Amino acid sequence: MSVWVTGDTHGMYDNLIERISENNVKENDSIIVTGDFGFVSDRPERREAFLSLMRENYRFWFIDGNAEEYPFLETFRIELWSSGNARIITPNIVHLMRGEVYEIECGGRRKTIFCMGGAYSVDRQYRCESVDWFPQELPSLEAYVRADRALEGCQYKVDHIITHTAPPSVAEVLGFSIAEEEYVLSSYLEELRRRVVFDQWFFGHFHTDKRLPSGFTAVHDKMIRML
Ligand SMILES: [Fe+2]
């Protein structure tokens, strides 16, 4: 079994399956989506994509982005999963929550993964609150407290970090600036960059594929084998 990382999927089933087949992902492999998963929805027009994903022989583990349907996502029960709290949506679809560290076993190897979803929607003025954007898109104070506790528990050392957005200093290298409204989250990610020892940090928000020096990788359509 391998673990892969890919970027935002926005509920696009055909596009995700195309990525999977292009990369020769095997049955029972796990795929981590770096936010804006978009499949967990109670909208009738999205139901077919969700049911199709549920029937696939792959495991989908996603962090949340700024484009999730939070009220529906929050109806799923939180359970202990791989040493952290997660929402088990279906047996093969799992929501990796903000501020959690998971221990993943793969081929006899154990890796720790820290997750911190969320981001600010820069196109918020074109969306409608509680319809297609939700205030929960940005982490609550509770998520930061949980993150600190989880990172303290592993002495601020993990194998991988998965976030939706990136520290501003990393976004800048890609030619992006961070919205002022995202200040709390971006300052926190910048602090993590300084404090946490990690091998690789993946993020998806910018819809681009680029491996940067110092362990950061922006992912979009590509699938990267992580484990
Ligand atoms: Fe996105």
What does the model show?
With 227 residues, the chain is an alpha/beta fold. The chain has a single domain, classed as Purple Acid Phosphatase, chain A, domain 2 (4-Layer Sandwich), CATH 3.60.21. The chain is 26% helix and 26% strand. β1, α1 and β2 form a beta-alpha-beta unit. The structure holds fe (ii) ion.
Mean pLDDT: 96
Which blocks of ≥5 consecutive residues have pLDDT under 50?
Answer: none
Q: How many angstroms does the end-to-end distance come to? A: 9 Å
- CATH architect. name: 4-Layer Sandwich
Task: Determine the CATH topology.
Answer: Purple Acid Phosphatase, chain A, domain 2
Number of helices: 6
Please give a quick description of this structure.
The chain is an alpha/beta fold.
Features:
single chain; 227 residues; alpha/beta; Purple Acid Phosphatase, chain A, domain 2; 7-stranded mixed beta sheet; 26% helix; globular
How are the elements arranged and paired?
Blueprint: E1 3-6, H1 13-22, E2 30-33, H2 44-55, E3 59-62, H3 70-73, E4 78-81, E5 84-90, E6 93-96, E7 100-106, E8 109-116, H4 141-153, E9 160-163, H5 168-173, H6 183-195, E10 200-203, E11 210-211, E12 216-218, E13 223-225
Parallel strand pairs: 1-2, 2-3, 3-6, 8-9, 9-10, 10-12
Antiparallel strand pairs: 1-13, 4-5, 5-6, 7-8, 11-12
The structure holds fe (ii) ion.
